[in-house]
Fold:
Amino acid sequence: MASEAQYEILRSVYQEENDRYTELINRGKIYLTICSFFLGGLAFKLNESFASATWWAKTPYLVSAACFIASFLLIILSLGIYSHEGLCDPNEVIDNFGATPPDDDDFRDDRIADIAVATEINSAINDRRASFLSTAAYSMFSGVVFGFLGLIMIMV
Structure:
C-alpha cells in the first residue's frame, strides 16, 4: 500500500513532465520565430546581391538556406500534435467501482499505476520533441555561420 506522500511525489513527477511539455512548446515557438526571421533575410538578400556573385560565394549562402529549411522542418515536427497520456479516465474509473467503491488505499495504488504509465509515455514524447528542437538549434547555428560567411564572400 502506497502512502499519501508517495502518491504526491509521483504526482509531482507527472506534473514536471507536463511543465516540460509547455517549456518545449514555448521554446519551439521562439525557434520558429528566429528561423522565419533568418529565412526571410536570406530570401531578401537573394534578390539583392546573390545574382551577380560567383559560385564559390553562392555555395555558403545555399548551404545556409538548406540549414534553415532543415531547421524549419524540424521545428514543425517538434511542434506537431502528439497524443499525451492523461492520468485516468474518470468515467472509466467510476464504471470500474462496481457495487462498492474500493477503499482509499487500493484506489491510490491504482492511481499511482496510472501516473507511472502516463509519465513514461509523456516523457518519451517530450524526449522526441526535445531531440527535434536540439537538432533544429544546431542547424540554425550552422545556418547563421554559413549565412554570414556567404555574405562576407559576396561582399568580397
User: Anything to note?
Assistant: The chain has a mean pLDDT of 87.
